[in-house]
Structures are given as C-alpha cells and as structure tokens.
UniProtKB/TrEMBL annotation:
It comes from Nocardioides silvaticus. The keyword Nucleotide-binding does not apply. Keywords: Membrane, Transmembrane, Transmembrane helix. This is DUF4386 domain-containing protein. It comes from the Bacteria. The chain crosses the membrane at residues 20-37, 57-80, 92-113, 133-152, 164-186, 192-214.
Length: 229
C-alpha cells in the first residue's frame, strides 16, 4: 500500500530538515538569552558569578542556550552532510560546525557552574565555574570568528535581501568573539550589552539561515543538436 502523503512529508524533512533544526535553534536562543541573570560589573568576578548562579533563572535560561547550541551544531552538520551549499561554502560550513560543536561543551560547563554557587559565595574553590571561564576565553573567539567566516561565505552566494542576513551574521560573530576577551581585559567595564547583542543577533542569524536557505543550483540551458538534412 502506498502512502503518498507520508512519502512527501519524509522527502520534505530529508531536504529541509536542516532548516527546521536551525529555526528551532534560533527560537530556543531567543527564549533563553533574555533570561540570563545580571550582576554589578564593578564586583569581583567571583562575586558576579556567585550572584548570577544563585539566580533562579540561571538553570532554565542556560538550559535553553545549551539546547539552542546543540541544535545549531546539528543543523550545520546536516546542511554540510546534505551538501546543500556550493563547494565554495562547504569547507567554511564544516569549520563552523566543528567550532559550534566544541562550543556546546562550553555551554554545558556554563550551565553546570550553578554547582559551585555556594562555593563562590563562601570564597572556596570553584573549579566548574572558573573552568567554564577558561573554556569561554578560548571557545568564544573561535566560535565567533567561525560565524564571521560563515556569514561572509554565505554573503558571496546569497543575493538580494539574503545578504542582510549575512551582515547580521558577521556582526553577531564579531560581538561573540570579543565579548569574553573584553570582559577579561576590562573586568570593571559593563559589557552586558555586548553579550546580549551577540546572543540575539546569533539567534536572528540562525533564523535567517533557516528562512533564506541555500541558493538553488543554476541549471544549464539544454543543448540543442543541429540536424543535418
């Protein structure tokens, strides 16, 4: 017995599943990022972490961020495996997928920092919380630049309004890349807007990729064969 509707649905998901996964990633980040607790930037890093990890919004907000990052990595890998992009984009897409996959580790450690909340407040050793800072110092720049390169690669093959999505992606990547290094270098400066801008622009970029999709391959004109009478 044939089930044409089921077959059509499966074909759609096979062809566009990566776009649905990226859309879900963007929605999850839009929901989770605004939940991030705030703290006084003039406080020492330990006190900032103690205040933020003690906030009831830390776990639900960061759980959504972890989910979003996992979905982003999955969507990029799906697109790479499906080879939906031209060869000029494939290598950059693969690099971005690897970078975001590594960044998943940081988001999990970021969430797990809540374990050290009491230790942070008491002045005791907090290996998970400070371990996540170490990971962030490396992985934020790597992931940010990967997104910049990916956005530039998309911009070279997209046309029209889709190039705006590429611009958003480049800005998102730069904000993400510099957010943690700037915080480490200038601990008394308020960089919350940079983190917030990076998160929200990454969410918009991710949704934009899902909506814009890959460019359709250019079909060559059919060749005509002259017949000799």
């Amino acid at each position: 017995m044939n089930y044409p509707e089921d077959t059509t649905t499966m074909t759609f998901f096979h062809a566009h599943g990566w776009r649905l996964v990226l859309a879900a990633s963007g929605v999850a980040l839009l929901a989770g990022a605004p939940m991030h607790p705030s703290s006084d930037s003039e406080d020492p890093l330990r006190k900032e972490l103690a205040v933020m990890t003690a906030d009831s919004a830390w776990v639900p907000g960061h759980s959504l961020i972890v989910l979003s990052t996992v979905l982003l990595a999955t969507g990029l890998w799906m697109a790479h495996r499906r080879r939906v992009w031209p060869t000029s984009v494939q290598r950059t897409l693969g690099f971005a997928a690897v970078a975001v996959s590594a960044y998943v580790v940081e988001t999990v450690a970021h969430l797990a920092a809540v374990i050290d909340s009491d230790r942070l407040a008491a002045g005791d050793a907090a290996p998970v919380a400070f371990g996540h800072i170490g990971l962030a110092t490396v992985l934020y720049p790597v992931t940010g630049w990967a997104l910049v390169f990916l956005a530039l690669a998309f911009g070279r093959v997209w046309r029209g309004w889709r190039r705006v999505v590429a611009v958003v992606g480049a800005v998102a990547g730069l904000l993400h890349a510099f957010s943690v290094p700037l915080t480490v270098l200038f601990p008394d400066t308020e960089f919350t807007p940079v983190f917030a801008g990076a998160a929200m622009s990454i969410a918009v970029f991710t949704l934009g990729i899902a909506v814009a999709g890959a460019p359709r391959p250019v079909r060559s004109a059919p060749r005509t064969v002259e017949r000799i009478a």
